[in-house]
Amino acid sequence: MPDRYKKDKYMKYTLSILLFCILMFLVPLQGSGFDLGADIYNRYVWRGTDFGNTPAVQPYINYSIGGLEVGAWSSWSITGASGGNENDLYASYSYNNFSLTVTDYFFPGYTGDDGIDEFSESGAHTVELSAGYSFADLSFLAAINVLGNDSDNSKYVEVNYEFYTKKNLAANVFIGAGDYIYTQDNNFTVVNLGLSVSRGRYNAAYIINPDQRTSFLTFGIAL
Known about the structure:
It contains one helix and 14 strands. The protein has one helix at residues 3-26, and strands at residues 34-41, 45-46, 49-50, 56-65, 68-77, 86-95, 98-106, 125-135, 138-148, 155-166, 169-178, 189-199, 202-209, 214-222. Strands 1-4-5-6-7-8-9-10-11-12-13-14 form a twelve-stranded antiparallel barrel. A two-stranded antiparallel ribbon has the order 2-3.
């Protein structure tokens, strides 16, 4: 049996056991830390790249206890556009100003065989390990893909600064850079630059991707 299939089989069983253990751990604690919701956006733009070129609904469910949070987050194209569907699982742990997150990005095509249990380089999963740190009005993010359909182990870093707060309104500027899957020529460069403003349930962002030589204006509302 090829090594790739052995690895996929091992990952399948490992994730199944992990999911079972998480569910068994949460059953006695049900009710106290669950949350759910959804956002609607005119465009799903993530780290400077548009996914689906269509409005999107983005539901989520999660459970948190102490500094640990596990959950599911997804984005669904309202028009059914190709490449607009994403259905992720994640686990995150925060301590003081630090956080560590593992995210399984899954992009189903609903072709009848999306390979939900396949984590090979040709599969629909990408597993990312990320670390975050916040200090006063500054926050930092560093992420690397460690498994799945990114053999280059793409990296991404971002700095966010909240420079304005007034009542329930806040404004942030941000800059992010990445390589390989984030860029046109695989080289590490700025791909996500802009301004984000939020007020209550509403959020808008003006985003520039210098590498793609394009810009976006997104607007979202939390349901």
